[in-house]
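OP here, attaching both records as promised.
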Amino acid sequence: MIRVQFAAAAAGLTGTVVVFVAEGELLQAPASGIKEADIKKIRELLALNDYKGKKGSSDVLLRPAGLPLDRLVVVGLGKASALTPLAAQEAGGAAYARLAGIPG
């Protein structure tokens, strides 16, 4: 069973964290509540993995270096200008699908 929990970024990042990335824009508005040092590390990881944020893409990084996480799930949103409520719902479904495939 997947248990989704929303917590203030001030609580710190732990466990499995999902981030949504728009194409060509690495970790904008919603992720801005995360500590800048952690955002920088996540951006570096995305760059190392050549992650572009293409719509429908997703990746799971296990125990990402420099972060106190078990997993970082990254889901592409496509171009920010094309983001619609349906596209956001599809991205949520992609995140769920990746999480459901993780042994827990």
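Record two, same layout:
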Amino acid sequence: MKQIVKKILPSSLRRMLHSLHLDIRKSLYKGDKVYCICCNTSYSQFLDMKEGSHPRKDVVCPGCGSAERHRMLLNYLKDNETTFFKEKTRLLYIAPMIGIRNYFKSLGRVEYLGADLESALAEAHFDLQDIPYPEDSFDFAICSHTLAHIPNDLKALKELYRVLSPNGKMLVLERIYEREETYENPNVSTREDRLREYEQDDRWRIYGRDFQSRLQGIG
């Protein structure tokens, strides 16, 4: 159903509907028991994470939809704001989350571009394996929990590296499993197979402790 909606509705309308949904949910959970840094608001509770391979309780912000990793990332970015963004910065944010997107848009010295294959929150839509920008287009890139969902992650990483400036920085976040090597099997092709092997039907691999060496391998 989600895929059908994405194909039928334009990004602007999907963005409006998403915002309306969050506004309604936000009003239902007014309170002061928990605080979300991503939308700078307190609520009566966080909601349960029901989607994905690791469902868990009390993690989803009712107002902006952020989970722990989004709040951790924003907290880290704010703590290092004067280091990362002390000068004018051309920033590429892959698979943008609304709270972090709004934070970047509030920084006058950041020239922001959010990108995704389909997301209504993104200004640009393209395949990460073939980024339609020349070399030295960005000074900072963020790619959070995206690479595992791309058929050729090393090609995507090379593309990200290519469009960065010579002194550019890239921040990459992924779930690392308790295994020495990343597991990806070329014989796993159907969504049913991927769900069985990788815990989600839109994943192409699960990363092990060799993830750092995969990053180092592209430069």
